Amino acid sequence: MTAETAPDAAEVPIRVLIAKPGLDGHDRGAKVVARALRDAGMEVTYTGIRQTPDAIAEVALREGVQAVGISILSGAHLELFPRIVAALHARGVDDVLLFAGGIIPPEDMPALRELGFEAFFGPGTNTNDIVTFVRQSAPNLDDAEATARS
Amino acid sequence: MSKSKHDWRENTHGKAVARNPERKPRFESSSGAEVEPLYAPEDLAEWNYHEKLGYPGEYPFTRGVQPTMYRGRLWTMRQYAGFGDAAESNRRYKFLLEQGQTGLSVAFDLPTQIGYDSDAPEAEGEVGKVGVAISSLADMEVLTDGIPLDKITTSMTINSTAPILLALYVAAAKQQGADLSKLGGTLQNDILKEYIARGTYIFPPRPSLRLITDVFAWCKDALPEFNTISISGYHMREAGCTAAQEIAFTYANAIEYVDAAIKAGLEFDAFGGRLAFFWACHSNFLEEVAKFRASRRIWAKLARDRWGSKDPRAQMERFHTQTGGATLTAQQPLTNVVRTTLQAMAAVLGGTQSLHTNSFDEALALPTEEAVELALRTQQVIAYETGVGDTIDPLAGSYVVEALTDRVEAEALAYIQRIDDLGGALAAIEAGFQQREIQDAAFRIQRQTESGERVVVGVNMFTSDDEIHPPTLRVDPAMGKRRAQELAALRARRDNEAVRTALDKIRTAAHTDENMMPLLVEAVEAYTTVGEICGVLREEWGEFHEVMTL
Question: Which H or E run includes B498?
Fold first, then answer.
């Protein structure tokens, strides 16, 4: 384990949800990322494949995550991502870091950034970059939540 | 002068390494086994030509399944394609056939693969995306329009809904007046690997296996020339497993299907000749060639030793190969042409019966027509310009290729034994064994790439800042809505009484052991949709839920 990915026992671990919406079963990337984030000391929930936007938002709420990473390779991102964001907002999950991976053509990224997706990690990404990104960008827990968890 | 490999390693090679260390302390195969600097006669000391290789077209088929191999007929160039609606895909197939492609390979969209019609809520955003949307016979008629189904062979990548799509294909062929006894093609129909890697399952394993044996039994007389299953390692390899695991997990699944069919009263030799296989070809060139050769030898032995096969046709392993989608990079995408060429060459040297070469833009989006054409041209150059097909199994007898063939065989057999010990492929899947093995291998590859131990050109070495974005293909976003209107019109004009009767029969048969295929043909001929049939079966059989392993 490299220095930048070593978990810091003194800190409250960041909670992340890795989700697979849509119908495609290509879960290699999602599972590799979930495992890399977990090895870096984060608390990771992985939804499994074929999750509806509502199901994903429901897990995000239940697990109180600070970041949601969405992996999709079916090409349905422009239809499904807005529904996921709407489902999160409908549950009051507003202050959460959004990022995505899979096959997302560069010309689709601006529309997804508008929705709140802050980063895209396609094929060939180094998982350390994802770890660093989540560490730096995940919103801080409010004090009460942090105390409750520690 | 060294008298043996041992002497050479001690003296000549050892001294050279002491002076100048090799590029890495250890060279490895995809499964982590050590690759030696040199292979020599000592490595094949116990090796017997007749036992290990034999001759092309003869047991154990290591050198190839046909006596003439590519001298008689080249492999089938079969590009997997399909997107949008049936009319658009029909145009792409005609384009590919005009360009000299020799067989069709139909990609279905995910709703069709998972048993939802284009107008189902679950299908939103997915219609026509990764393949063609087929909900009823009306769509299949358009898809096959002007393509003589008795003159070409068609491969259909379809699994949980395979019996329904086969029924649709048969119904369209009947309309064309085709002789069903001559209808050729391949149905993927391999549900077990869906639970392990690909994910398009619907029903739990038991009723799914019953549908597969129904297809075997029905095709024996109705479609004698059709390959009833294509037992696939491709998707497990893409998900991360090693070459030896690819063979082992695939054959463990095959053992499960064969045993289920035998239990249903079929004789192995009566259906064994209609089993086909499907492998990936990744970049470790010699190991991949060895894998294909080993796979034929293992299958021939399984057929004889496990199932007492007497018919050579049921012992020869015929397979399709696709180059490795997971080896393609989004960075410097044109480099993928080179990767694909080398992988295609390995598949040909390994004796494949048909081949799909990936398009260079597939790590970015669905392939464009230009990219698909270049991929097909790659195969044509190998076939017509390089001469590699003029001699059968040209790498045989190479010390390293034979040593690797033996090693891949031994590693695969050890894994098959482990799965046998776990109670077979299905029990192992339910325990998450294959899934975990694949995830571990994928994670190992990821870590090796990140540490630089494994080089991927353009990704972790020789990177460049100029990003090239080739044009990408887009599916019309209005298609979902248009498809919904078409389906509404279909449901209004068909004979809905006939549809209800057909669905009732399917519902009843779900709980008996009546062969489902004639009922499915009857249903689709009445324009019952894929989603309606699966809806009934979902109610009767329930749905499978993923075994979570992380």
Answer: helix B496-509
**Mean pLDDT value of segment B67-89:** 91
**Which residues 39-78 of chain A have a CB within 8 Å of chain B?**
44, 46, 48-50, 74-76, 78
Q: What is the pLDDT of residues A106-118, one digit of tens each?
A: 899 999 999 999 9
Omega before residue B60 within 30° of 0, cis? yes
Note whether B115 and B162 are within 8 A (CB). Answer: no
Chain B interface with A: residues with Cβ < 8 Å: 110-111, 113-114, 122-126, 129-130, 194, 197-200, 238-240, 326, 328-331, 363-366, 439, 442-443, 446, 450, 456, 459-460, 467, 469, 472, 475, 477, 546, 548, 550
Q: How close A139 gets to chain B, by Cα (Å)?
A: 25
Amino acid making up residue B394: P
pLDDT at A2: 45
Report domain extents, chain A: 15-135
CATH class of A15-135: alpha beta
Q: Are B262 and B429 in contact (CB under 8 A)?
A: no
ipTM for the complex shown: 0.87
- For the record, the structure tokens of B531 come out as 């989603």
B216-238 average pLDDT score: 96
Instruction: Kindly list the structural domains of chain B, giving each domain's residue range(s) and its CATH number in brackets, ordered by start.
Output: 74-451 (3.20.20.240)
- All residues at 6 or more sequence positions from B172 whose CB lies less than 8 Å from its CB, including other chains: B137, B140, B141, B143, B144, B149
Pick from B126, B329, B472: CB nearest A123 = B329
Q: Give B255-280 pLDDT, tens digit per residue.
A: 999 999 999 899 999 999 999 999 99
Reported for B217-222, long-range contacts at CB under 8 A and 24+ positions apart, including other chains, are B217/B261, B217/B264, B217/B266, B217/B515, B218/B515, B218/B517, B218/B518, B219/B274, B219/B517, B220/B266, B220/B270, B220/B271, B220/B274, B222/B170, B222/B180, B222/B517
